[in-house]
Design a protein that fits this description.
GO molecular function: 5-oxoprolinase (ATP-hydrolyzing) activity
Organism: Acetobacter aceti
Radius of gyration: 26 Å
InterPro entries: ACX-like_C, ATPase_NBD, Hydant_A_N, Hydantoinase_A, Oxoprolinase-like
Number of strands: 37
Shape: globular
GO biological process, one term: glutathione metabolic process
Largest sheet: 9 strands, mixed
Number of helices: 16
Oligomer: single chain
Protein name: Methylhydantoinase
Structural class: alpha+beta
Distance between the termini: 46 Å
Length: about 675
Amino acid sequence: MAWRLGVDSGGTFCDVCLYNVDTKQFSIWKVSSTPDDPSRGILAGVTEGLDTVSAGPPDVSFLGHGTTVGTNAVIQHKGALTGLITTDGFRDLLEIGRQQRPSLYDTQADKPETLVARALRFEVPERIRHDGTVETVLDEESVREAARSLKKAGVKAVAIGFLYAFVNPAHEKRALEIVQEEFPEAFSCASHQVAPEFREYERLSTTVVNTYLGPVMELYIARLGARLKELGLAVAPRITQSNGGVISFDLARELPVRTVLSGPSTGVVAAQAIGQAIGIPNIITFDMGGTSTDVALLKDGVCRLTGEAEVHGYPVKAPMLDIHTVGAGGGSLAYRDNGGLLKVGPQSCGAFPGPVCYDQGNLTPSTTDANVVLQTLNPLFLLDGRMAIRRDLALERIQILADELGMDVMETAQGILSVVTANMARAVRVISVQKGHDPRDYALMALGGAGPLHAVRLARELDMKRVIVPLTPGVMCALGLLLTDLRADFSATRIMTANSASHRAMSRIFATLMEQAEEWFAQESVPDDDRRIKLSADMRYVGQNYELSVDVPDAATTVTEQSVDVMVSGFVTAHKMQYGFASETDPAQFVTFRIEASGRVDKASFIAFENVGPDATGAIIGERDVWFPETKGFVSCPLYDRKLLKCGNHIAGPAIIEQMDATTVLPPGTRAVVEPHLNLIVEIG
């Protein structure tokens, strides 16, 4: 039998989702992450997961992998020592940026640490004009001297970013050749390879982030690839990109910046597929893991794709799903701040030492400890008994915090959850209210190991009436890896006014991008019948600073005069939707042209089951006292085993639903129904 595997390595747990191609059945597994070497945890997860279904490495027909290695390296500033070679006069561009304050009126706001020290930034004489002509010829000897100096300084990676290289990359290509001659052992890349688009600061920042992550991802991929090879895996593994698609390990090595949202992106892909299967297209995803919470908005079943985002304060020009992240997870630490107030996060205890209740040496209580004390989470064990829990230790440390705050211990534990809920509600408002969407028009889908624990509380905070808890919420990112296609994005900036003659230039640009896409298809061995192409362009009015994406009306590299007219009309419509108005007189401009290339792969599918009726008593496995803020005390709650629930079953809160990868809390006043695909639909109120 053939098995498809999705493996998601997070800050606390490594999740494995196994899909049997023949029987259409899913199986899941979880193991603790190994932060010192994530590949160890992945290997353990794959090996143990295959053992649970009596399969071996030769039975694996696909392995997709999502990772937070790149994200964590940026957040924790644990990337490689990096040098920069740039155009004469632009040495300080990384620090000057756009001269915008992170918070306009906050005089104490800190800028993110510059990833390249000033002493490691070298200028070389060269200049390309905006039209691609050469004003100053590249001084090759200066490039050689810079490369030698960086080698002497001990850097591990070299970034190259020249002005207007997105129009004419000749100088960058030659500089890259020289650096590789002088310093072949360093990871090196140039901006035209990473982000061939305009806006020099964002392009340079993206190139530096890619270079900064290069050696880290090279080491990680080499270790993981070697371990999987030793295991006997016969297929080439894939890694997730921030855009929700997957690419080969080799391409991820070259462009690690495209994996900075590798982990959460496939959770959104899985949510999209489930929403489509159950007929609920408008969803806000709520993915709460051990370290952070990721939220995204799906309108009509689609998550918006953005071409630029900030990752921990660093601008990155790379296609990625519009996901917002906050430091609120099961491992977020609770403490009393200098003002005497209760704070939670963004610091996290991670997989090791983990929460206090793990009994691995941590003495600061976390969100997980609060749930254990309140007994919304099993106070004895997790992972179906594989992980022992010490409630007494968690209670002891939260009691100390309660004494510091002058509060009751149970109210303190509930206070930790309330603070975390408020933090997550702010994140949801960023991707909904602040962008013109009312959360009440959406269903909240709970993902991640901690998502179902907090989902109903969060929904109530946002006045949302419906929560969806998938069949395997704790491994949704791993599941998403079995539902996504191969994907790559190609772009080129050429600013031109939209008129009757522009279609000729557009056709030439798209033809060049198509050549790159065809090369990628060949590199990834995508059969002709499985190749998909989508063309689009970023447009704006002349004089505007921001663009809107508009699709080319037909998927062909030859753009007609009629295509241009349709795109201008589409831009006007998009402008009205985004900003509430559109100009009748200002001319429209094309700015950046894009091709989205995807290779279709066989995906997992969901099975619908027959309705057996509302009676869920057959799934009750016991009861537990749980502390709820509505009752200000403990209430005896029935415990349900998620594996025993059938289609059509009804459950009234208060109740607890347990499964290996997550725990769902139904507070008083809620009601859950098991829909045909065995997802829980929770109605609030």
